[in-house]
Amino acid sequence: MNSAHITSSTDEHPVVITRVADSHWHALEDDRTVGRGEATRRPDGRIFLSIDSWHDLVFDRLAGVMLADLPTPLYTVVDEADLDLTSSWERAGFTTRRREWEYVVPTDPRVTGLDSVRPPSGVTIVAAGAAKLGPLRELDRAIRDEVESTVGWQEMPAEVLPRPHGITMPDLPKYAVAAQADQYVGLARVVMITRLPRIGIIAVRAGQQRGGIARALLAHVLGSLHSAGIDTASAEVNESNAAATALFDGIGARRASSSLELIRR
């Protein structure tokens, strides 16, 4: 693998940047690892970088070598409150592409105001784990096709990734769905990433949007969590998604933090 010898101003020993694998770089100073870099290619083809280093200078040197080794555009995600890390990536030529809000969502329907919400006429909500696999896969493929033909996967949360052709819905029990006539028209997914359940996705077919289905799905999944004794959940929402931000703001969800997706073109 390639190595680059760079002298640090914080020590007399040189810092050696080595690409130890196709997607990993190490920074060594006097045989000590003082920094690591990683490039991750997501299923949508985009490459995301991460760097962990002891000093700003080591960060800059790692970033410089990684950027020279990789094709653009390149991406990274930072906590907006971490000003030092954001500044480090900005020094490397990255700029903000989008902001994503992290919401803390109450589940009590008396707090959210969703206690009186009912599905639109002709629509029924099928609880998580009770949906039929065939129609659910058809809905999943249809929604993914709509995403790809409109906003694109680059606007979706990292958790909601495209999958290889023909592979859908590996975690059927996590999806509640909205059924209309003989087809499924919307879905909601709740996952337990940490102790706080995360609302991973709420999606409705394009032809059935703006009719109250998403709100009914949200009322159902939050109500189910509340019945299970869970007081709050979390959700990530793209700042530019006006419908989603209005939905969560309207039920008393609190914006707890935000992350920035940065890009170097």
TrEMBL record:
Classification via SUPFAM superfamilies: Acyl-CoA N-acyltransferases (Nat)
Q: Which GO terms describe its molecular function?
A: acyltransferase activity, transferring groups other than amino-acyl groups
List the InterPro entries. Answer: Acyl_CoA_acyltransferase, GNAT_dom
Q: Which PROSITE patterns match?
A: GNAT (PS51186)
Q: Does the keyword Ion transport apply?
A: no
Q: Name one Pfam family in it.
A: Acetyltransf_10
Q: Which UniProt keywords apply?
A: Transferase
Q: Does the keyword Lyase apply?
A: no
Please report the stretch or stretches of sequence annotated as the N-acetyltransferase domain: 123-265
Q: What name is this protein filed under?
A: GNAT family N-acetyltransferase
Q: Which organism is it from?
A: Solihabitans fulvus
